[in-house]
Every structure is written in C-alpha cells, then in structure tokens.
Design a protein that fits this description.
The complex is a heterodimer of chains A (456) and B (305). Chain A is mostly helical and 456 residues long. Chain A is built from 18 helices and no strands. Chain A has one domain: Formate dehydrogenase/DMSO reductase fold. Chain B is elongated, with a radius of gyration of 33 Å. Classes of the chains: A mainly alpha (456), B alpha+beta (305).
C-alpha cells in the first residue's frame, strides 16, 4: 500500500468498469437467500444440540476426567490458526511490497475476522458452566495462559475487523451511488459506514497512516495469539505437548490452513462472481507457491516435533508416539501427513497443479487435514497422561466424540461460513479503489517511466 | 539332567518370588486378639482414625479406589484384607513395610485395635474372638498420670508417673516410658525408652537442634509402654524447647502459582504495558475514523459555500 494516494484515479474512466464488475454480484440474490436459508436451518439443528449441552452439561459430550479437551479445543486451535492468514497476506507480504496480494487482501481479512470471532465462541462451547464466562474477567489470574489467550484473541479480532473496515471505507463511498439494484437498507448501511468519505487527500492521508499502524501492530499480535494458544498445551505436563518448539510449530501450521482457506475462497469468489479479471491465474500461481513455502516450513517443524522424542523414546512419549505411528491413531495421522502436507507439497511444485480447480481440490484436502491435525495434537496426548490409569473407568481413557458435540462443532463452522457469506455478498470483496489506483498509476508509469508513489 | 536342574531352579525362583510378595506374620503375632470387644463406638472411633491415617492410600472401603503403589494397598473390604487374622492386621499396621509406613509411634495400641474394628465392619462373615485373659493388673492400677517438665540447665525432659494404689497417689516405679516429639507425619522418638526410678521419674536427653514452630514450641507426647497394665496412658504437652523455625508458606510471596493479587511484578508490568500499548494504538485508530468523518464534514461545507 502506497504512503500517498494519487486521487487522479477517481476521474479515470476505468474506475467505472472496475466498480461495475466488482459491484455486480453485491446485493441480495435468490441464490444468496437459498444458501443462507440452508445454512440457517442447519444451524438451528446445531443450536438445538447446544441447548441440550446447556441443559445437561458436558456429560452429553465424550469429554471425561482425563480427556477434558476434545473436539472443541481442537476446533478452537483450528479456528485461531486459520484466522492468522489475514496477518500473513496483508501485513507480512503487503509490507514487503508484493503488489499481487492487493485483490486477495480483503478475502484474507474476511477469513481473519470470521474465524477469530468464532474462535471465542468455540471456547465457550467447551465450558460446562458458560454463564460463568464473566468470571474469567472478574477473577482471572494474569499468571494464567488462559487469560493471555482471552486477551490476545480479543485484540486480534478487533485489529482484524479494523483492517477489514478501514480500507473498505473509500469503496463504500465509491459504491454509494452505484448500488441502485440493492435494497434500501443496504444503501443506507453503505451511507453510514462510509463516514463522510469524499476522497480528500487529507482523508487518504489519515486512512493510510491508520492502516499502516494496524498492519505493523497485527504482526506481533498474530504471533502472540497462536504462540499463546500453543502454550495452553505446552505448559501442561503431558507427553506430546512437552515441547519447546510448540509456538513456531503452531504458527507455521496456521499459515498452511489459512493459505488453503484463502485459496478455497478465491476459487468461489472468482467463479461465482465472474471476477477472473481480478483473481487471475497469476494470483493462483502465487498462492500455490505460497502454500508450498508455508507447507515446507511446517513439514520441517513436524519432522522436529516427532523425530526428537522418537529418537529418545522416553516411556510416556513412546506410548504416545506408538499410538500415532502404528497404533489407534495411525490411519488418521498418516492420512493427515500425506494428504494434507506431503502430497500437496509435491503436486504444487508443478505448474499444472497451480491452476484454480486443482488448487481448490488440494486446498480442501489441506484444510480438512489441518482440522484433523489439531485433533491429533489435542486428543491422543490426553489419553496417556502421567497419571495412574489402571483403576479409572474405561470411558476416561478413550475419547469418543458424541453426535451432540459433533453437531455443536459443525455449528461453529456454519457460523463462520455465514459471516463470510454476508461479508462477501453484501460488500465489495475486491478493493475497488486500490485496483483503480493501480491501473491509473500503471498508465502514468508508462508516461513517466518512474513510479510516482513510494512503497512502505 | 540339565532339564531337572532348570526345573529346580525355576521352582526355587518362583518360591523366592512368592515370598517376596507375601507378607509373613510370625505365628505368635498372628494369634494376638483385641483386648476389648468391637462395638459401634469402637467402629466409629476407628472410622475417624481410618480417614486421617489410612484413607489416602487404601481409599474408601469397598470402592476399590486405592492409590497406585507397588505392591498395591488392598481395599479394606477386599477378601485379601479380610483373610488376615486380627493379630496379623495388628502386626502389619504396627510394623509397616515399604511402601506402608509403620504406625508404631503414630497410633496407640488401642487406636490400632479401633481401626481393625472398623475394617472388620466390612466383612459379613467376621465373628470376633476376644482375648480371654483381658482385664488389667499392675502395680499402680488404672489411673496413672504422666507429668512432663523441662529441666533447662540439664537440657532434659523429665517425666514423672504417678498412679493410684490403695486410694493413695504414689509414684509408679520401674515401668517403661517413651517420649516422642510430634512431627509432620508421625511421632519422633526422643532419646530412648527409659524406666522410671523409685520416685516414678524418667529423664530424657533432649536434642538441641530439634526444629519447633515459629516460636520454638514442640508438642511432646509421653506414653507408658505397658498398655495391658495401664491402658492407654499418655501425656500431651507443648513446650517452647525447640529451635524456632519459620517456614514461609509457598503462597506467601509473589509467584506464578499465587492469586492475582500476588502476581510477579515482572509479569504484571509486561502484561499491563503490552495491553495498554496495543489498545492505545487501537483507540488512536478509532479516533482517526472520527477524524476522517470530521474532515468529510468540513469538505462538504466548503463545497456548499
């Protein structure tokens, strides 16, 4: 993002065609209503499952004394992880100066907002007494990583929401007069949210400065959120969690699932909204390369995480690793490692697979595998605690998720999809002003043979 | 031939292994019987003692929630426990064997029999046999008293034992007295068992380095060994004769495991500073949105003019 904006693009004719392309799908269509209706009805079933849990407590789940963090916490880590991609795309790649991320940045921020918002809700689903949630703030101990986690998740959610909203303001102003085909209330919403934007250089100056602050601030926050999430496990004495590299291990894993989520969303936006002019083959090519890069880093951490304890084979670690490598969890473990990491890396090295449809399929595998990967991190470690387990009931030692908790988990995923659908369908999904400015600046460059804008 | 030796070796090893598992009670001890009949009051007293001294390992009788140790402590309601004779139970409680501690100095002989009466309440088949020659004899009769005093110049604790005999209070001579200091688990024998002299006196050398509480107080317990003669006679006196020792509780100072009011300073500062700094920027950005709004109003007015 440039530190100065040449507002000449506002008078460039190409702004009109870009705005028309991007705003065409905005609004409430029949397809949108059917899709939302389907999501809402499915969600109602999941809400009924949560009502059962609210009434009877966590006994309706498969959670017992030893495995007290099951599907819910795995789901929480998955949500936090996936939301980190907003930081990776907008901040890390954006601040370095990559221009190709511009049309993708907002998609990444939508994922960040939706997943971070639901992550907080997922934690509540794991609480036996959810009405005691305020106690976390009333009696929370600063010494507890759980309080740090609550703090960073909230902060990251606010930062992501601001990073979604601020660059949207000029678009809302541009769109105001161009969305006559949408309902009145939506036009009114655009009017209110565009906070008197009139494209004055002063407003652009304030906007760019604020966005820059947020872009820098969100990097340590995003590192903190997932490092602290990893500490929730790593500071607990359990085989499989007793690791010093859990922070970076989680962080790099987060970029894998996040990148996959962005690719999936790019595919649907591109095909459903016919935006292949803006989400080009080049963008898919670059995202494919990014996915290979982050997957390789994650593979490196995986090798570290399993090779070192497997070499020493301390008794408890040996039982845990046996469960993963050849025991009860072996089919899940090897499917996750092969289908979600190793095969995608190999395939994406070839240009042929860095095309929209193959990448969609690969990314779905990667995303689903990354959910199960969190399950493998959370559950097997608890089935082999450093505690006597000869005399405890069988149900304490093996974890079997119930239909109710599966439904509640599905509900959280549905909620995230609903948030994403609303943001994608009711607001411009690709930054109009940034696209127009880039086109305009490109024309000027041809004349002057030098860039009039400097990069951050 | 070799095979026979091997078989012999196996048998020897197996029997050695078994004997390591078995807890052998001498026949003489195994035949011992309680001096009193078990009834509801002994069972009730036994239950209280059981909770204080035994439950942490043996669990709740009948619930099989014993602690995981090798060898495993049996549940009191189990056949394995109930197969012991009264005397065998008494012997095992008194002697102990790793990991079971000896309760010789912790529970009195009467208390141990009370615990056994409680344990027996979990067996339907049990019928008590009472010691035939029960009934106390002895020189001083029933009402023996122990008086403990501190002889500072000699660094000794003096026990004087007086008993009622023929309705006259007189010293109990020639009986064994033991002095204990109460410790965190169990009682520590001080000096050694002493016999009273003609004045009913026994002197115990007291160590100079025994830790007391923060004011140096040590709880002393003196017991007469001959319980058949005197019943359960003991003195329980607290004297300021130990080394004053103050052990700060683990939650006294600021620590990670403490309540929020006792957070370590470094953590309190880093957390507060980080949160304030990040949220300071967030509020700054929110104010900038307001600034954008205001800048828009101004521009609109200018164009209107």
């Amino acid at each position: 993002m440039a530190s100065e904006v040449n507002t000449g693009f506002l008078h460039d004719k190409r702004l009109d065609s870009i705005a028309t392309d991007i705003l065409r799908p905005v609004g409430i269509s029949k397809g949108f209503l059917i899709w939302m209706g389907f999501l809402t009805i499915s969600l109602l079933g999941c809400i009924y499952a949560y009502y059962l849990q609210w009434e009877k407590g966590l006994i309706v789940t498969g959670l017992r004394d030893y495995v007290s963090w099951g599907m819910y916490i795995a789901n929480f880590i998955f949500f936090v992880a996936t939301s980190l991609v907003g930081m990776l795309i907008s901040s890390v790649l954006g601040l370095i100066g990559f221009k190709w991320i511009k049309p993708i940045a907002r998609i990444a921020e939508i994922i960040a907002v939706a997943f971070a918002a639901i992550a907080g809700l997922v934690i509540v689903s794991d609480m036996g007494r959810p009405e005691r949630l305020p106690y976390v703030f009333m009696y929370g101990r600063i010494q507890s990583p759980i309080l740090w986690d609550v703090t960073v998740v909230t902060t990251y959610l606010v930062l992501s929401a601001l990073l979604y909203f601020l660059p949207l303001i000029p678009d809302l102003a541009i769109s105001k007069g161009r969305i006559g085909h949408t309902p009145k209330w939506l036009q009114k919403t655009y009017e209110v949210l565009s906070v008197n934007w009139n494209h004055s250089p002063q407003q652009y100056k304030i906007l760019l400065k604020s966005v820059r602050i947020l872009l820098i601030l969100i990097i340590p926050t995003a590192f903190a959120i997932h490092t602290v999430t990893s500490w929730l496990l790593a500071v607990t004495l359990r085989p499989g969690w007793d690791s010093t590299i859990f922070g970076p291990y989680f962080l790099t894993g987060a970029f894998v699932s996040g990148s996959a989520a962005v690719i999936i969303m790019m595919y649907f936006v591109r095909t459903n909204y016919k935006l292949d002019k803006y989400l080009t083959m080049h963008h898919f090519d670059m995202m494919g390369k990014l996915l290979v890069l982050v997957s390789l880093v994650y593979l490196y951490f995986n090798i570290n995480e399993f090779l070192v304890p497997a070499f020493k084979l301390k008794t408890a670690d040996a039982i845990h690793l046996h469960d993963l490598f050849v025991g009860e969890y072996a089919p899940m473990f090897w499917s996750v490692q092969l289908l979600g990491l190793i095969i995608p890396i190999i395939l994406l090295l070839f240009r042929f697979f860095r095309k929209p449809l193959p990448m969609l399929i690969i990314s779905i595998f990667v995303l689903v595998a990354s959910w199960f990967k969190r399950f493998l991190i959370v559950v097997p470690a608890q089935e082999n605690p450093f505690l006597p387990k000869q005399f405890v009931p069988h149900a304490w030692m093996v974890y079997q998720p119930t239909i109710i908790e599966t439904a509640i988990t599905m509900g959280t995923i549905l909620l995230a999809v609903i948030i994403i659908t609303v943001l994608v369908k009711l607001f411009p999904v690709i930054p109009i002003w940034e696209m127009a400015e880039e086109k305009h600046a490109g024309k000027n460059d041809e004349h002057q043979k030098s860039s009039t804008t400097s990069n951050l | 031939m070799n095979k026979r030796y091997l078989l012999l070796l196996l048998v020897v090893l197996a029997s050695a292994h078994l004997s390591a598992q078995e807890w052998v009670v001498p026949a003489e001890n195994g035949a011992k019987l309680s001096p009193f009949a078990f009834n509801d009051s002994t069972r009730k007293a036994g239950a209280e003692l059981y909770i204080l001294n035994c439950k942490s390992c043996h669990g709740d009788p009948g619930k099989n929630n014993v602690i995981n140790l090798v060898p495993p402590p049996p549940d009191p309601a189990s056949v394995r426990m109930q197969n012991n004779s009264d005397g065998a139970l008494q012997f095992k409680i008194v002697q102990g064997r790793a990991p079971m501690p000896s309760f010789k100095n912790i529970l009195s002989s009467t208390d141990i029999w009370r615990v056994i009466s409680y344990v027996r309440s979990f067996s339907d088949k049990y019928v008590q046999e009472i010691e035939k020659k029960s009934g106390r004899t002895g020189a001083a009769g029933l009402n023996a008293r122990i008086l403990l005093t501190w002889l500072k110049e000699k660094n000794q604790v003096q026990a004087v034992i007086m008993g009622m005999k023929d309705k006259i209070t007189q010293p109990v001579a020639g009986t064994e007295v033991k002095l204990f200091a109460k410790r965190y688990f169990g009682n520590l024998l001080i000096d050694e068992a002493r016999n009273t002299d003609a004045q009913g006196k026994a002197l115990f050398n007291f160590p100079k380095d025994l830790p007391g509480d923060s004011a140096g107080y040590v709880q002393l317990i003196a017991k007469l060994s001959d319980e058949t003669a005197f019943g359960e006679t003991k003195a329980d006196t607290t004297l300021a004769i130990g080394v004053p020792t103050y052990r700060p509780p683990l939650n006294e100072q600021r620590a990670m495991w403490n309540v929020v009011q006792k957070t370590p300073i470094w953590l309190l500062l880093s957390y507060t500073f980080t949160v304030l700094a990040v949220w300071g920027f967030i509020f700054y950005v929110l104010l900038q949105i307001r600034a954008i709004y205001k800048a828009g109003v101004k521009k609109d007015q200018e164009t209107a003019d």
